[in-house]
Amino acid sequence: MSPLLACHGCDLLTQIPPLPKHGAAYCPRCGSLLMRAKPNSIERSLALVLASIVLFAVALSFPFLAMKSGGFEQQTNLITGVYLLYQQGMEGLATVVLLTCVLFPLLQMTGLLYVLLPVYLKRRLPRAVQVFRFVQHLQPWSMMEVFMIGILVSLVKLAKLAAIIPGISLWAFALLIFTTAAQTAVLDTHRVWVALEASDGTD
Amino acid sequence: MALIEATARQRGMASCHSCHLLCRLPSEEREGRFSCPRCGAALHSRKKNSLTRCWALLIAASILLIPANLLPITITSALGHTQADTIISGVIYFIHSGMWPIALVIFVASVFVPVVKLSILALLMFSVQRHWQWRPKDRTRLYRLTELVGRWSMVDVYVVTILVALVKLGAVATIDAGFGAVFFAGVVVLTMFAAESFDPRLIWDAMEEANE
User: Fold this and answer.
1) Which of A24, A3, A22, A23 is CA-nearest to residue A14?
2) Which of A81, A195, B102, B211 to pair with A74, CA 20 to 30 A apart?
3) What is the pLDDT of residues A6-51, one digit of tens each?
């Protein structure tokens, strides 16, 4: 039997028919997306998560911008900004930036790897259910794409002050925005939950 | 698509907030004491204390919005000359130097979005409390929109972080973060929590009340 779902937008019960490839089902009452067919979801997400982790490692290890003015040259990477804010007594602000731009994205990537790899290999790891729930909760709090816009605005703002030299990390970061966005788009959370439920039945 | 003319709540069921599994709630009174059999999240028919929590966060965010806009977010010192910039003065600076697209980005992300988001959430909650039946579909859409755009307000906070890190050119120029940035980050975080605690299904509950 096709699954019965309650819309998370209006609570209406709907019977979802088998979806065609790339098809989607919307709530007939409020129009919220109920389910979308995503072929090869696990494999694609896994590939994109791995790519994101590599790009993130690059983004963290190299300077993303350098600024030249007179004899001075100042380089910065993601962490220096946070560190300097902290030094200036803005601990709270430094924490918010550290969490939303470094820690949450990192937890999300590693968490997804922890959940998706065993699902792909038809194995199970302890607490995969809790990890996946946590990763889903983190989604809106990971703001790398917003940070990217922040970098662009700063570039324009500083262009008059000094020569700005973009670093390797900046390119890695720009690519990272695309891989994470693509990963979010291809991940079929419904399928992951069903897979986790099946493997959890042995408890 | 087969349509069952009932909501989960009318059938004594609840959709898990976390994994969307449809579960049967044993009885109305003991609601909230159950966890989802699939993912372990607490099961509620509706988000708990949705309106109270949302109002509290909304009021707190509105209060923080005042210092966020009045206090400087950056303090620039260049060649012995110090200048404190608020969000608005930054926007005005960009307009004066002819960089319209940047001025627009900052204005929309830092001024327009937070204010509109707070107003929309207040309107939605007011409409739920008054049991409005007016255009529920559009109101649901409005909610999805506010939920989506909130995080973009963080742009200016990141700009400040980058500027602080980059402009440390000894005696030539320094940029320090101002306390406006702290309040601003607070506004963004609180409005995100507020949007998260609102339950759009409350909008539709008024429709069922009218049918019964």
Assistant:
1) A3
2) B102
3) 998 999 998 888 888 888 999 988 989 988 888 899 999 999 999 9
Residue position matching structure tokens 């109305």:
B28
C-alpha separations of A40 from A120, B69, B72 in Å: 10, 47, 50
Instruction: Tell me which CATH code domain B50-209 carries.
Output: 1.20.140
Task: Give yes or no for A184 touching B (CB within 8 A).
Answer: no
Handedness of CA B197, B200, B201, B207 (dihedral sign): positive
Do A129 and B40 make contact, defined as CB atoms within 8 angstroms? yes
Phi/psi of residue A35, each to 5°? -160, 150
Report chain B's terminal Cα–Cα distance, integer Å: 25
DSSP code, position B18: T
pLDDT tens, position by position, B121-179: 999 999 999 998 889 999 999 999 999 898 899 999 999 988 888 876 555 678 888 99
Structural contact between residues B68 and B87, judged by C-beta atoms closer than 8 angstroms: yes
Give me the half-sphere count of Cα atoms (radius 13 Å) on the Cβ side of residue B79.
1
Say if residue A5 is in the same domain as residue A97. Answer: no
Cα B74 to Cα A135: distance, rounded to the nearest angstrom: 34
Please tell me the pTM assigned to this model: 0.90
Residues A193/B19, Cβ–Cβ less than 8 Å: yes
CA A47 centroid distance within chain: 14
Judgement on whether residues A83 and A141 belong to the same structural domain of the protein: yes
The residue ranges of every structural domain in chain B are 1-45, 50-209
User: What's the sign of the alpha-carbon dihedral B52, B54, B55, B61?
Assistant: positive
Measured CA to CA, the distance from residue A118 to residue A124 in angstroms comes to: 5
A30 and A51 fall within a common domain: no
Write the burial class of residue B82 (CB in 10 Å: 0-12 exposed, 13-18 middle, 19+ buried).
exposed
Tell me, yes or no, if A85 comes closer than 8 A to chain B by beta carbon.
yes
CA distances from A42 to A2, A22, A34, B94 (A): 21, 15, 19, 45
The answer to whether B154 and B185 have CB atoms below 8 angstroms apart is: yes
* Cβ neighbours, 10 Å, residue A91: 12
B contact residues 117-156, partner A, Cβ 8 Å cutoff: 136-137, 140-141, 144, 147, 150-152, 154-156
A132 touches chain B (CB under 8 A): yes
Q: A-chain residues within 8 Å CB-CB of B192?
A: 140-141
Is the domain of A44 the same as that of A15?
Answer: no
